[in-house]
Structures are given as structure tokens and as C-alpha cells.
From TrEMBL:
It holds the Pfam family DUF3817. NCBIfam families: integ_memb_HG. It is a multi-pass membrane protein. It is found in: Cell membrane. It comes from Chryseobacterium oleae. The chain crosses the membrane at residues 12-33, 45-63. This is Integral membrane protein. Its main location: membrane. Residues 10-96 form the DUF3817 domain.
Length: 100
């Protein structure tokens, strides 16, 4: 895992995983706690964290795409689209980012 920190693509992969985990936490733990248990504390904490990771993933995707000369129609749009589809970041990491 440490080797991923040495490259921009590696850091993008880490962001993809963190963004996916934050969405899982938000959807399957925080939101049920808010509505079933009446405790919105975790949503208030995880919402901004997930939003920040989402934006970091978007900006880093664009940055890596420009730096690596990705063709927008072949790679960049797929990686960007992944963060708009629930759990898409896990898929895109295994299908595209891990092979770069």
C-alpha cells in the first residue's frame, strides 16, 4: 500500500477506495442511524468527509488525466463517471486504475 503513495495514479487509487468506503459508511451506517435511531451525528460527520473525498477524486482525476495524457473519450470520462455511480470507484479501480 505504501508504494501507491509514490505516484499520482497510486494516490488517485487511494482516493477512489476512500471515497467508496466513505459512501458505504454514509449509506449503510450513518443514514440508517439517522432515520431509524434518530441519531444524525454520524451523517453530520461523514457527509462533509464524503463530499471532500468526492471533490478530491474529481480534481485528481482531471489532474492525472492531463499529466498522463489520457484520451478523454477512452479513459478520463469513465473514471469521472465512476464517482457519480454508487460504488463505481471500486469498479474503476479494479478495471482501469490498477492496470495503469
Amino acid at each position: 500500500m505504501i508504494h501507491l503513495l509514490k505516484t499520482k495514479i497510486g494516490r488517485l487509487r487511494i482516493l477512489a477506495i476512500l471515497e467508496g468506503i466513505s459512501l458505504l459508511t454514509l449509506v449503510f451506517i450513518a443514514v440508517p442511524m439517522k432515520y431509524w435511531l434518530g441519531n444524525p451525528a454520524l451523517v453530520k460527520m461523514m457527509g462533509p468527509i464524503h463530499g471532500t473525498l468526492f471533490l478530491l477524486f474529481l480534481f485528481n482525476t482531471l489532474s492525472v488525466g492531463v499529466e498522463q495524457h489520457w484520451k478523454f473519450k477512452e479513459t478520463t470520462w469513465k473514471v469521472i463517471l465512476a464517482c457519480f455511480i454508487p460504488f463505481g470507484t471500486f469498479y474503476i479501480d479494479s478495471k482501469i486504475l490498477s492496470k495503469l
